[in-house]
Amino acid sequence: MEATRRRQHLGAAGGPGAQLGASFLQARHGSVSADEAARTAPFHLDLWFYFTLQNWVLDFGRPIAMLIERSPRTLPRSITYVSIIIFIMGASIHLVGDSVNHRLLFSGYQHHLSVRENPIIKNLKPETLIDSFELLYYYDEYLGHCMWYIPFFLILFMYFSGCFTASKAESLMPGPALLLVAPSGLYYWYLVTEGQIFILFIFTFFAMLALVLHQKRKRLFLDSNGLFLFSSFALTLLLVALWVAWLWNDPVLRKKYPGVIYVPEPWAFYTLHVSSRH
Question: How far apart, in whole angstroms, are the C-alpha atoms of residue 177 and residue 172?
Fold first, then answer.
């Protein structure tokens, strides 16, 4: 009883991002039992609406670590705590680096160029200062992003693994869910492109697809929440493909992103093609 009261207290204190965080953090890998499949959760309109709004306003669902029970299965506490710790550390690193980066933009930093090629950086004296800015870029764009996004997508997948039902009639999205798919998918598009996490995203998407096919063999279907998340990711993949196709022949961005995976950042496009015109 005392544990239940504590959970209810946390539920009252947490915001909408907290509610989604709880759902994400409390799902577990594995097959869905008949009893779990019978307890189909309704579409959480308030949860997804406020989480989508919060993502756009705050850039991410930062209060994701609060605990409220929305999923019938629980995640081991060790994985929960480790994910929360890594998530917060990565978000903190990224926030510091991103704040410095935005200040540099006001001073003429050009995001479509590398650190050493930027006019305001390449003439710094002593030259060891350039190494310091490259280190800051590494912490922000690589280390911070990995520590931030890997737990984020792991939590999403954990939540998704519990979104199945034995009733095919309940495998439908209500009208409000359809309206939220577009802003949600657009947000994840920004996440993938600006965060340069296409490999992590596509791995998560195919893992979700494989889980759907696996559960379908057991005659289990996605419920409304699972359909919403899967549809958001599918729309994101389409938007990323259109974005890459549009900028496929851009020589400057090709130089900035020379690898096999070519996914330009929106900020690089902005500094190259929009702000340079003013």
Answer: 10
